Amino acid sequence: MSFAHHGATLVSALLFPLINLLASGALAQEQEPGIRSAPPSTTAYPLERRPVIDGDVADDAAWQGVMPATGFRQVRPDEGRPATQRTEVRVGYTDEALYIGLIAYETDPSMIIVTDSRRDSSLDQTDSFRVLIDGMLDRQNGFVFGTNPAGLQYDAQVTNEGAGGFRGPGSGFNVNWDTTWAVNSRIHDYGWSAEMEIPFSSLRYGDGAEQIWGINFQRNIRHNNEIAYWAPLERQFDINRVSAAGIIDGIRVPSQRNLQFTPYVLGSAERGGSIAAGTVDQQEFGFDFKYSITPSLVLDGTYNTDFAQVEADELQVNLDRFSLFFPEKRPFFLENAGQFSVGNPREVELFFSRRIGVGAGGARLPIDGGARLTGKIGNDTNIGLLRMRTESIAGLVSQNDFSVVRLNQELGNRSTVGMMYIERAGDGSAQANPSEDYNRTMAVDGRWGIGDTTLITGWMARTDSPHLSGRDAAGGVRAQYQDEAWNLSGGYSEVRENFNPEVGFLARRAFRKWDAGWRYSYRPQDWWNLHELRPHMNYRGYWGFDGFQETGYLHVDNHWEFESGMEIHTGMNFTLEGVREPFEIVDGVWVPAGTYEHSEIQPVFWTNQSAPLSINVRGNIGGFFGGDRATTDTTVRYQLDERFSTEVSWNRSDISLPVANGDFTVNLARVRVSYSFTPNISLQTLVQYNDRDDVVAANVRFAWLQSANAGLYLVYNEVDEFSGLNMPNSGYEPDNARQFILKYSRILDIFN
Fold first, then answer.
1. Quick one: which of 725, 683, 687 has its CA closest to 704?
2. I need a labelling partner for 525 at 20 to 30 A (CA). Which of 91, 238, 456, 744 fits?
3. What is the percentage of the chain residues whose pLDDT exceeds 90?
4. How far is C-alpha 303 from the chain's CA centre?
5. SS (H, E, C) 459-477
6. Whole-number Å distance between alpha carbons of 563 and 141
7. Separation of alpha carbons 681 and 412, rounded Å
């Protein structure tokens, strides 16, 4: 297959069923209104006393008289059938908090599976419970709170029903978001139970003394791979489907004056790396605050901002000529991060918060402080305002003021229209050019939901940069159709030559991109213990504005998912790489300019991820830049119990290219060990090795949390020689960089 000659034909062929289904789906939905059944409803009860948050619901007198929500139905393994085990969820409230009491019955409690107790660990491979709360009843956004029988604390923020496809900031599902709440669980001879206490100050809701919210509950029964919901969902959706949530009424919220003040003190000692000699000791003080102007509009502020407790970035190896993406992990930038997301995730992001306070190679730049206003005005208008200042570093980095304005109007049925303005204003001190030290980005975007199955999204943007004029626009449009069996998508985007979002992220520049794909999900009956088959094809192609094709990628695959949790993928890739100029893939090895067309197999195998020992293996074996590549990415996880877990991963690429020194091997290894003394006290170690850059990096963190991200942290970091992870400093051979940090912070509720 020649991508250069047949790329457009291939995209058209993949888009054809999408266009037909979009038209027929929209028509069917117009002809059959109200096809979806009415959502279930329940009531929140006022509690005469506060429950004791010890996980024992049945014996707590506070829950007497509270009628439970029941009637859960499966989406897997047997879609639409009643859950195999009874689940009762009670909801009550006091003047300060919302309370949720769970009783998860299990006929054989020895079958309960518990895999982890660390905060925000995945709930997919353990018996678990989640609740989605849509306090604004806007049917698009909400919060998820979850736990398991070990009392794990899990919270996340949902924006635009989880749009974006990634689990992190900038996507529609942000598991890195944390707030203040409490949970505890217990295992009994009849199953397990849990109690949650969620302060009203941690939620967002509309005006009015008595509230009606959207709500849904999810229970996972892991030993038989069962997922069940209280408000029934079709199998292609998950709990992030806010528009399909049920209703809870009867909640009388208090009039709030909420101000949280979080001061911190920090001491650190550092030597090696960018430090020429000796040890540098530092002491720091700063604070964050959060003030609820209304229950749906929140002002956050920060002074002398510090993120020493954040886990180190995972090392990556770049065997291509495009930029790598590293996700945001810093707590201040995580709340409502999805609201600031415009563009194509991890490819063209107009606002990328790591541009604030993070320099080249991940080096930390000092942040003086800033403020952010986020939330809702009225019932349908979302607002986001951000202002931050970073300090200058003499001769290297100017002082910069960052400003972001984001407005978004909800129109119903998952539809929105919005705008965004982003500005970086520097003082010019680094290059002595204050009048030319700026960058601006302006954008509009929208979503159009058609019925329950179709969504069309689009965005357009321009930038304003010194010495760049004309050809400074970018944009994209995408359509997706999704029902129980079919998932079809197609899109077009382009980034012109002078488009320059300096406070954003671009994986590549100056391109036109077409992409399309389809996936069919089939659940066979009594066939080799298979749960689901998912044959699919995806294509993406990138062209320069001169018609030269830079990338073509056709993926043909089938996923074989078994009832046991084991999964096998049998993939094949057909690739094209158009290299305009030679580039150095590793030290001393250059890939010549030219067009390279190859094919490769992509097998994937993983065992039951909830088992104490699990394995995940992925391979890419085939042609690569005119030669051959065999890459294996292997991860082995061992979980002694819910407290101790370890993960060892090894990515090895054996590459043979028809150039000088073209036979080489690249290894990237990672060891992660975690021990949770309690759900709030943990010790985590991350050791990484990258032999291409000859880097060994270690990050050890002890955390004793009061709530959310506040508490006591002891952190040790080491990088074994200069590798771009430290600030550059010429004139000497740096020693290994070592850093020890002690940090303490505490959340103070001023009015409570």
1. 683
2. 238
3. 71
4. 26
5. EEEEEEECCECCCCEEEEE
6. 32
7. 43
Contacts of 307 (CB under 8 A, 6+ apart): 329, 330, 331, 332, 357, 364
Is the peptide bond preceding residue 40 cis, with omega within 30 degrees of 0? no
Question: CA nearest 458: which of 442, 473, 470, 443?
Answer: 443
- Each residue of 126-177: pLDDT tens digit? 999 999 999 999 999 999 999 999 999 999 999 988 876 555 555 688 888 8
Q: How far is CA 60 from CA 56, 91, 219, 727, 744, in A?
A: 6, 14, 22, 56, 35
Per-residue pLDDT of 356-377, as tens digits, reads 998 877 778 899 999 999 999 9
pLDDT at 69 over 60: yes
Encode pLDDT of 454-479 as tens digits: 999 999 999 999 989 899 999 999 99
pTM of the model: 0.87
Report d(CA 244, CA 371) in Å as an integer. Answer: 34
Torsion of CA 513, 510, 628, 555, to 10 degrees: -10
The residue type found at 306 is D
Q: Cβ distance 336 to 159 under 8 Å?
A: yes
For residue 28, report the phi and psi dihedrals to the nearest 5 degrees: -60, -40
Could you tell me how far CA 612 lies from the centroid of its own chain? 26
Which residue matches tokens 């999805």?
338
- Measured CA to CA, the distance from residue 730 to residue 725 in angstroms comes to 14
pLDDT at 33 over 70: no
CA 725 to chain centre: 24
Q: pLDDT, tens digit, for every residue of 662-702?
A: 999 999 999 999 999 988 899 999 999 998 888 899 999 99
Whose tokens are 């074989």? That residue is 560
Helices (H), 333-471: none
Q: Which residues neighbour 239 within 8 Å (Cβ) at sequence distance 6 or greater?
A: 130, 132, 144, 216, 218, 229, 233
Read off the amino acid at residue 448.
W
Closest to 459 in 3D by CA, of 141, 21, 164: 164
Q: Decide if 510 contacts 497 (C-beta within 8 A).
A: yes
Backbone angles phi, psi at 22, to 5 degrees: -60, -45
Alpha helix ranges (H) inside 330-398: none
Contact indicator for 379, 136 with CB cutoff of 8 Å? yes
pLDDT at 164: 62
The residue type at 374: T
Residue type, 458: G
Instruction: Identify the pLDDT of residue 641.
Output: 86
Give the model's confidence band at 53: pLDDT under 50 very low, under 70 low, under 90 confident, else very high: very high
Q: Which of 395, 177, 391, 428 is nearest to 284 (CA)?
A: 391
Cα-based angle 654, 659, 662 (whole degrees, multiple of 5): 25
pLDDT digits (tens, 9 = 90+) for 627-675: 999 999 999 999 988 899 999 999 999 999 999 999 999 999 999 999 9
Q: Positive or negative, the Cα torsion across 371, 375, 378, 381?
A: positive
| pLDDT in the model for residue 1 | 46
CA distance 535 to 569: 10
Provide the pLDDT confidence category of residue 267 given band limits of 50, 70 and 90.
very high
Could you tell me which of 323, 406, 426, 318 has the C-alpha nearest to residue 365? 426
DSSP state of 428: -
Q: 368-398: string of b/e by CB count within 10 Å (b at 16+)?
A: bbbebbbbbeeeeebbbebbbbbebbeeebb
Give the residue from 353, 312, 342, 291 showing the smallest Cα distance to 444.
Answer: 342
Under the phi-then-psi rule, with left for phi > 0, alpha for psi from -120 to 50, and beta for the rest, what region is 164? left
pLDDT of residue 26: 40
Tabulate helix, strand, coil % of the chain (nearest 5): 10, 55, 40
Buried b or exposed e, range 190-205, using 16+ CB within 10 angstroms: ebbbbbbbbbbbbbbb
